[in-house]
């Protein structure tokens, strides 16, 4: 009887919209492919048929009347579905899972930005998500003002080019994003082993290098066959 595959590796990428996550995820998946590491890429909200419907409601500017607790509940509905349908099956197959946002985002945006606090977010994560924790989280923290401005420009460009309006959060005041940013820093300080924060306005290549170094070091600890990557 063939041995069961080793459980996979769960990586999340976090940061404000405009922090450069999309670019780094694209380069990371190319690196994983070059290393012949089987991987699954997903995102939150979204990544499943149900999740994509939730995402459309959460991010559309026309959903301006959502109460903070409604927003929180929708985030966790999306996450529970993604864990059941995408993340856990891929980890069981032994794959490297790359997830664009996870519960840290909810703690930062709803716990910090919406001022609901961390406790309710962490309690819901335990209850609804089985307290699933990433093996490693990469947190991108470039300059706050730069990130916000970049995200707003990008979303306006997407509206003009594709008619897709995912601009609801970018319409928030700067104080909202300052609270999100502060909560992300709080999470990184609280969990220094899991969370690797990459600060400052670095070049795309510099950030990519730091991302790959952090991942390679953690993979080497996870399975000996990856020691050659370090």
Give the N-terminus to C-terminus distance in angstroms: 33 Å
- The backbone outline, from C-alpha atoms, is globular
> How many strand units?
5
Instruction: Just name the CATH architecture.
Output: 3-Layer(aba) Sandwich
Beta-strand residue percentage = 5-15%
Radius of gyration: 17 Å
Seen as an oligomer or otherwise, the chain set is single chain
Given helix and strand content, the structural type is alpha/beta
Q: Return the CATH topology.
A: Rossmann fold
> Considering DSSP H and I runs of 4 or more, what fraction of the residues is helical?
55-70%
**Relevant CATH superfamily:** P-loop containing nucleotide triphosphate hydrolases
Question: Overall pLDDT, averaged?
Answer: 90
**Helix-strand sequence:** EHEHHEHHEHHEH
Describe the 3D structure.
This protein has a five-stranded parallel beta sheet with strand order 2-3-1-4-5, with helices on both faces. The protein has one domain (9-224): P-loop containing nucleotide triphosphate hydrolases (Rossmann fold, 3-Layer(aba) Sandwich). Helix content is 56%, strand content 12%. By secondary structure, it is of the alpha/beta class. The protein has helices at 21-34, 49-59, 68-92, 103-113, 118-129, 144-162, 174-190, 204-222; strands at 9-14, 39-43, 96-100, 136-141, 195-199. The longest helix is centred in the middle third of the chain and has 25 residues, at 68-92. The mean pLDDT is 90.
């Amino acid at each position: 009887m063939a041995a069961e595959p080793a459980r996979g590796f769960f990586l999340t990428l976090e940061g404000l919209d405009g922090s450069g996550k999309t670019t780094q995820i694209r380069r990371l998946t190319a690196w994983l492919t070059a290393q012949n590491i089987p991987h699954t890429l997903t995102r939150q909200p979204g990544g499943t048929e149900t999740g994509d419907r939730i995402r459309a409601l959460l991010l559309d500017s026309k959903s301006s009347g959502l109460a903070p607790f409604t927003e929180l509940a929708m985030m966790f509905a999306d996450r529970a579905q993604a864990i059941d349908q995408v993340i856990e099956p891929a980890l069981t197959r032994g794959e490297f899972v790359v997830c664009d946002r996870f519960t840290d985002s909810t703690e930062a945006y709803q716990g910090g930005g919406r001022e609901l606090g961390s406790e309710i977010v962490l309690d819901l994560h335990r209850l609804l998500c089985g307290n699933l924790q990433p093996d490693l989280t990469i947190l991108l923290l470039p300059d706050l003002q730069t990130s916000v401005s970049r995200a707003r420009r990008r979303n306006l460009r997407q509206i003009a080019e594709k008619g897709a309006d995912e601009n609801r959060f970018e319409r928030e005041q700067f104080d909202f994003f300052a609270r999100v940013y502060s909560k992300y820093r709080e999470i990184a300080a609280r969990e220094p082993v899991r969370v690797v924060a990459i600060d400052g306005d670095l070049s795309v290549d510099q950030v990519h290098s730091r991302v790959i170094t952090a991942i390679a070091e953690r993979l080497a600890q996870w399975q000996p066959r990856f020691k050659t990557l370090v």
